[in-house]
Design goal:
The chain has three helices and two strands. It is mostly helical and 91 residues long. Helix 1 packs across helix 3. This is T-complex protein 1 subunit eta.
Length: 91
């Protein structure tokens, strides 16, 4: 007899699957990409970032902006981790 798989989740987490979750993953990654898109290129614009403590940062460096963002969505967080590791390797 085949048993169903056992999935352990932390308290307060949800297990979502299917087409809706795929679309949600894509949207979260697009939001992160759009937040740094205007800083790229010769006409790159500065971003003003205010954190939860009220500290302000003005930067047009994508790595700095990604470091300051508080990302809780797993797919977008993975994308940011990839960008950070690429920046660490290449410089």
């Amino acid at each position: 007899m085949m048993r169903p798989p056992i999935i352990l989740l932390k308290d307060g987490t949800e297990n979502k699957q299917g087409k809706g979750q795929i679309i949600s993953n894509i949207n979260a990654c697009q939001v992160v990409a759009d937040s740094i898109r205007t800083t790229l290129g010769p006409r790159g614009l500065d971003k003003l970032i205010v954190d939860s403590k009220g500290a302000t940062t003005i930067s047009n460096d994508g790595a700095t902006i990604l470091k300051l963002l508080d990302i809780v969505f797993p797919a977008a967080s993975t994308m940011v981790d990839i960008a950070r590791s690429q920046d660490a390797e290449v410089g």
